[in-house]
């Protein structure tokens, strides 16, 4: 069967069940694709040498008549922030180079139990600190649409792998937009579930009150299928929500009919600085809203007056939690250790952390340690938490008026590698529209909405819903996806020049 790499996960699963293709064939096709293009894209840090053995085992179980999970035999890429027993887990940092975990992250264990085939570990900004995947200790990942541009961050490796047809599915993590912003700039679908919907056990922590694991895919339906596998209560995660979750795949199927749009109230935040968005991003956003309105949705202007303070609050809360979480990488408990002849334990710790951490990680540790220091805690960290509460109240008041909130997923299309690397503030502002969801714990989805007129690069629209209403996002996202697919006649990624040309 030709073009296995371009099929959705749902399509692959159907062909696997029917026996038209084997998991070994599907896995080999993706391994061949990785071998062919990843030298240019650099989406993967490690390719799983056991992938074909896992696929062969799935084929044997299916041949024996065993009833398997819906996606059994479909390949999966895993962001390197998630620990795995059979592949190194580095979180994009030299300080964890070669680290082998004694256990799997819960989401990885659930993926294995469902018969997914781990292809490898994907590149990321070091300890998930970044918006471009340029802060990886192992070199940047490149955007398959244009190899001179960033694929977003921190999960640029997972998004690029899916966009470059190296994997049909990937796992990412989202602390302030690290799934949704890469989806925006690569033309893929990215979902940040409700905080607590998906276990964080085995996800190397950046900011524990903000981190959330979620799916990266090419279709909303595939994202729903993957979230159905990884979501659910985990007693190993004290923040895990104990209640059962409805099927996100079913919600996506309901949304694809378009009926969910009739009477749907979509909120647009009047305080978002329209002047701060690239013209093509703003235009694509307005066009998507017009299409939804034409199908019966109602566009409602809402007020969220504290959203403008979200970035400032986030970049106090996140560094503070990161400073605490990364203290364990001290040459004694975890991570590399440098020899300092005649040095004290403190000397070894200092030398190891200086050599093992990159500049962005050091910057945020310093910021966080300062914000938590005596005399400054209330002024900085405490004040940021008060702003967080105000943002949560903004969401509560907004959702009393509307069903979902819509924003552009990020302010610009993919910028060039190196363009913002020396301007941390400009980099941080890439998360302008995604950060509020993490501060409030609500779910968000980024769905491709078109190409920006000025540069031909992909743009995404973000939908946000109340906590635990993830299914609502899948319905709305799938409805828009179906509308746009009818208009385009083919998936957006089919129009990516670098994917279809000589470069890859």
From TrEMBL:
Pfam families named among the record's database cross-references: Amidase
Entry's Gene Ontology cellular component terms: glutamyl-tRNA(Gln) amidotransferase complex
EC number, UniProt record: 6.3.5.7
First-level EC class: ligase
Residue numbers annotated as active site: 79, 154, 178
Signal peptide positions on this chain: none
GO terms of molecular function: ATP binding; glutaminyl-tRNA synthase (glutamine-hydrolyzing) activity; transferase activity
Keyword presence, Nucleus: no
Catalytic activity: L-glutamyl-tRNA(Gln) + L-glutamine + ATP + H2O = L-glutaminyl-tRNA(Gln) + L-glutamate + ADP + phosphate + H(+)
Keyword Transmembrane helix (UniProt): no
InterPro entries assigned: Amidase, Amidase_CS, Amidase_dom, AS_sf, GatA
GO biological process per UniProt: translation
UniProt keyword list: ATP-binding, Ligase, Nucleotide-binding, Protein biosynthesis, Transferase
Assembly with partners or alone: Heterotrimer of A, B and C subunits.
HAMAP family: GatA
Homology family: Belongs to the amidase family. GatA subfamily.
Main function: Allows the formation of correctly charged Gln-tRNA(Gln) through the transamidation of misacylated Glu-tRNA(Gln) in organisms which lack glutaminyl-tRNA synthetase. The reaction takes place in the presence of glutamine and ATP through an activated gamma-phospho-Glu-tRNA(Gln).
Name of the protein in its database record: Glutamyl-tRNA(Gln) amidotransferase subunit A
């Amino acid at each position: 069967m030709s073009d296995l790499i371009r099929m959705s996960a749902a399509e692959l699963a159907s062909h696997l069940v029917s026996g038209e293709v084997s998991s070994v064939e599907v896995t080999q096709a993706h391994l061949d694709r990785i071998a062919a293009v990843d030298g240019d894209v650099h989406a993967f840090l490690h390719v799983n040498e056991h992938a074909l053995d896992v696929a062969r085992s799935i084929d044997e179980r299916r041949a024996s008549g065993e009833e398997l999970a819906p996606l059994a035999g479909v390949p999966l890429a895993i962001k390197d922030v998630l620990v795995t027993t059979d592949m190194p887990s580095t979180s994009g940092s030299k300080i964890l180079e070669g680290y082998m975990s004694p256990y799997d992250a819960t989401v990885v264990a659930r993926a294995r139990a469902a018969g997914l085939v781990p292809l490898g570990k994907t590149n990321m900004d070091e300890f998930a600190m970044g918006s471009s995947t340029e802060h990886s200790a192992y070199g940047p990942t490149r955007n398959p649409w244009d190899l001179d541009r960033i694929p977003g961050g921190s999960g640029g490796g997972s998004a690029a792998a899916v966009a470059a047809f190296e994997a049909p599915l990937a796992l990412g993590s989202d602390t302030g937009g690290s799934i949704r912003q890469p989806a925006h700039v690569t033309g893929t679908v990215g979902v940040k579930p409700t905080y607590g919907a998906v276990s964080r056990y085995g996800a190397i922590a950046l900011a524990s009150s903000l981190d959330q694991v979620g799916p990266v895919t090419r279709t909303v339906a595939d994202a729903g299928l993957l979230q159905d596998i990884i979501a659910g209560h985990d007693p190993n995660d004290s923040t895990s929500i104990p209640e059962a979750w409805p099927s996100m795949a079913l919600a996506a199927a309901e949304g694809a009919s378009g009926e969910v749009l009739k009477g749907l109230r979509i909120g647009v935040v009047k305080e978002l600085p329209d002047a701060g968005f690239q013209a093509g991003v703003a235009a694509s956003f307005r066009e998507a809203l017009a299409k939804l309105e034409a199908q019966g949705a109602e566009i409602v202007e809402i007020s969220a007056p504290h959203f403008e303070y979200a970035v400032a609050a986030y970049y106090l809360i996140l560094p503070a939690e990161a400073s605490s979480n990364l203290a364990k990488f001290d040459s004694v408990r975890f991570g590399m250790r440098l020899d300092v002849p005649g040095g004290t334990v403190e000397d070894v710790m200092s030398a190891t952390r200086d050599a093992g951490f990159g500049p962005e990680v050091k910057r945020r540790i310093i910021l966080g340690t300062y914000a938590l220091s005596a005399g400054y805690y209330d002024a900085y960290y405490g004040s940021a938490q008060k702003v967080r509460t105000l943002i949560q109240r903004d969401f509560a008041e907004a959702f009393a008026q509307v069903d979902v909130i819509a924003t552009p997923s990020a302010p610009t299309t993919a910028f060039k590698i190196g363009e913002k690397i020396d301007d941390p503030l400009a980099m941080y502002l890439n998360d302008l529209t995604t950060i509020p969801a993490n501060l409030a714990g609500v779910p968000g989805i980024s769905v491709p909405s078109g190409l920006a007129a000025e540069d031909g690069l992909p743009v995404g629209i973000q939908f946000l819903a109340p906590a635990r209403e993830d299914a609502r996002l899948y319905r709305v996202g799938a409805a828009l996806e179906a509308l746009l697919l009818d208009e385009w006649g083919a998936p957006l990624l089919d129009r990516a020049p670098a994917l279809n040309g000589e470069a890859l």
